[in-house]
Amino acid sequence: MEKSTYFSEDKIEKTHKLTEMGIPLYPTGFKNIKTALQIIKEYEELSAEDIEKLNATCRIAGRIMAMRSFGKAAFLKIKDRSGDIQAYIRKDKIGNDQYEAFKLFDIGDFAGIEGTLFRTKTNELTVLAERIELLAKSMRPLPEKWHGLTDIES
User: Fold this and answer.
1) Could you tell me if 58 and 39 are in contact, meaning their C-beta atoms sit under 8 angstroms apart?
2) How far apart are the C-alpha atoms of 120 and 126, rounded to whole Å?
């Protein structure tokens, strides 16, 4: 039988590992409280100190568009229907089990994140994850930025 090139072997392997860990690939029931744009508009005028005093918590759900991993921590760019927001994932904050599952997430997957807001050293509004959940595993890669999508109507 010929191997399918439709899905990458790496993603197939990750789906098997997630399933073995008891993590559903397409769960239901994550309640998204606010969109990225709502969060940004609500807190954009506040300083890092003011946000820290508020101890503002939020829940955001969206597609992982970028990921920068640093061993026991990672920054994600999460895109929902309204825009982008950054999330910061730390192993010591979400725990070993969630972090092991998170390491199997890919760009293109949908994730739900719950945590507190803070500003990074570069002043970017960011969600410090206290919980992260896979909402949908993407089996195909996102289209390339320059070659993937074209506007056929123009």
Assistant:
1) yes
2) 7
Instruction: Kindly indicate whether the domain formed by 30-136 is annotated with CATH number 2.40.50.100.
Output: no
DSSP lists the bridge partners of residue 68 as: 75
- Tell me how far apart the terminal alpha carbons of the chain are, to the nearest angstrom: 43
Give the CA dihedral 15, 97, 142, 70, nearest 10 degrees: -130
Q: What's the distance, CA 86 to chain centroid?
A: 8
For the chain, percent of residues with pLDDT exceeding 90 = 73
Q: Where along the chain do its domains lie?
A: 30-136
- 128-149 pLDDT per residue, tens: 999 999 999 998 877 776 555 5
Q: What 8-state DSSP symbol labels residue 141?
A: P
Tokens of 102: 């998170």
